[in-house]
Amino acid sequence: MIRLRALIVILVATGSAVGLLGAQGRAGTPVYGYDVVNVYPHDREAFTQGLLFRDGVLYESTGLNGRSSLRKVQLETGKVLQRISVDSRYFAEGLVDWGPRLVQLTWNTNVGFVYDLGTFKQQQTFNYTGEGWGLARDEKRLIMSDGTSTLKFLDPQTFKVTGQVQVTDGSTAVRDINELEVIDGQVYANVWLTDRIAIIAPQTGRVIAWINLAGLMAKPGLSGDAVLNGIAYDAQRRRLFVTGKLWPSLFEIRVRR
Q1: Which of 188, 127, 131, 137 shows the shortest CA–CA distance to 158?
Q2: pLDDT of 220
Q3: Are 103 and 116 in contact (CB under 8 A)?
Q4: How many domains does the chain have?
Q5: Of 24, 56, 178, 255, whose CA is between 20 and 30 Å from 195?
Q6: Residue range 79-134, pLDDT digits in tens
Q7: How many CB atoms lie within 10 A of CB 189?
Q8: Which long-range contacts link 112-115 to residues 24+ away (Cβ below 8 Å)?
Q9: Per-residue pLDDT, 15
Q10: Phi, psi angle pair for 215, to nearest 5°
């Protein structure tokens, strides 16, 4: 019995506990499955940190010092249509669009970049406290993760923090919140080193459901850094896309509730 309990703890921590715990999370939170709708090529050298879909194409922020970039990518082929490199001092992270601009975070240098959406010309920089991980937006504000259990809300013009919530599943804080996307008013968030996406109510920080993506990407031949990270949404056609760092594929999925 002790070994079984230990196994359950391990599986919950890695986001693989659906088989043992049924279709509920730690606090009775629903756990959803998925169906693969389409599979598209993805650059397996891209250390995906931020991903979004706009006007029929993907925009992607890739990380690692000396390899960080901002990209415009054709969905169907994975072809990089436009790209700029980020200075090697910076480890690029989350990415979001706001009007005619793109906003990109960096990991531990407390600097963000603002680019023209069309030309990728850098327009300004800004500073923030703590690490930069994921970035998304709703209609009024930017939403930022920093690797903790906190989501910060930023003014999209000044980039000042206007509020924050702690992400919890029941009474348990959910740490390592990473890449973000807002879908129908809810925040979808990768949790670093797991195969799960948390669906979060931004008003309270409460996890209202999980999506278990275990088995989506075959692991043989991939490095240990090749973990799930990257969520994009086509609101017009209601298509949900996910990928991972150094993954050779990007998936369109349908959530099975």
Answers
A1: 127
A2: 83
A3: no
A4: 1
A5: 56
A6: 999 999 999 999 999 999 999 999 999 999 999 999 999 999 999 999 999 999 99
A7: 27
A8: 112/159, 113/86, 115/70, 115/84
A9: 39
A10: 85, 0
Around Cβ 9, how many Cβ atoms within 10 Å? 11
Regions of the chain with pLDDT less than 50: 1-23
Amino acid at 134: G
Per-residue tokens: 75: 């969905």
Range of the domain at 116: 2-256
Report the candidate in 97, 118, 114 with the shortest Cα–Cα distance to residue 54.
Answer: 97
Between vectors from CA 28 to CA 210 and to CA 17, what angle results, nearest 5°? 60
pLDDT at 5: 32
Give the pLDDT score at 203. Answer: 97
How much is the pLDDT for 160?
98
Query: Which residue has tokens 């999925």?
Result: 253
pLDDT of residue 26: 66
Q: What is the CATH number of the domain that holds 201?
A: 2.130.10.10
3-state helix, strand, coil in the chain (%, to 5): 5, 50, 45
CB 115 within 8 A of CB 104: yes
Cβ contacts of 114 within 8 Å, gap of 6 or more: 101, 102, 103, 104, 122, 123, 124, 125, 126
Which backbone phi and psi does 79 adopt, to 5 degrees?
Answer: -70, 135
225 Ramachandran zone, left/alpha/beta (phi>0; psi -120 to 50): alpha
- The reported pLDDT for the residue numbered 219 is 83
Q: Tokens 């090749």 map to which residue? A: 226
**Distance between CA 169 and CA 112 in Å, rounded?**
30
Helix, strand, or coil (residue 214): coil
